[in-house]
What does this fold into?
Amino acid sequence: MNPIFASPKFIASLDIDAQNCFTPLCPMELPVEEGHLIVSELNAQAQFASLRLGSKEAHSPSAVWVASLEKPVLSPVMGGGSNVDVHWPSHAVPGTLGFQLLKGLPAVTDYDFFVWKGVELDLHPYGSCFHDLNEKLSTGMIEFLKQRQILSVIVGGLATDYCVKATVLQLLKAKFKVILNLGACRGVAKETTAKAIEEMKNQGVLFIQCANEMVTVHGATNALGWVI
It folds into this structure.
């Protein structure tokens, strides 16, 4: 069976870090333009899958990578270990608005599998499949998908050029077919987003503009070849 043409039974939908901290709702954290507008597409793509997975960042305000006047955003973290790279504004702190999922998404307990990442002070992963940048400590997501016989994963979330890209590449490395719903993603910057999309395209990711591209009309197969 070609995974791209699998039935929904073998398809999972993944919401990556769809949190308020990555939207204009939290301007002092890491706001992504239009980041709050992806909810309807995330919910729509989930209708084409048998499982829905999600991830959230969960960071301490005392993490070693938190930026300051002396340590500006995107400057290298010195002496923080191999699992942090650059400084970021404090964001996704549990108990705050920024930590919460976007309004309109399911409660975390309604997902079939959920990951919280970046809890440790010296860990700042981007991908949802590993707790560390070195990709040695699994979050269990890959194992869960394989145990449930998933072949393809429909992906959306924030942000396209960082956590989404990292997760997509991890899934590809684990031999899953990946469909990236661009309507369910937003990027930090145009240049880095375009570069990320090109990198993912070169790795074999299938792109759709919106979940409607996966809809079957009157029994005819859609662009992906699925009859649902």
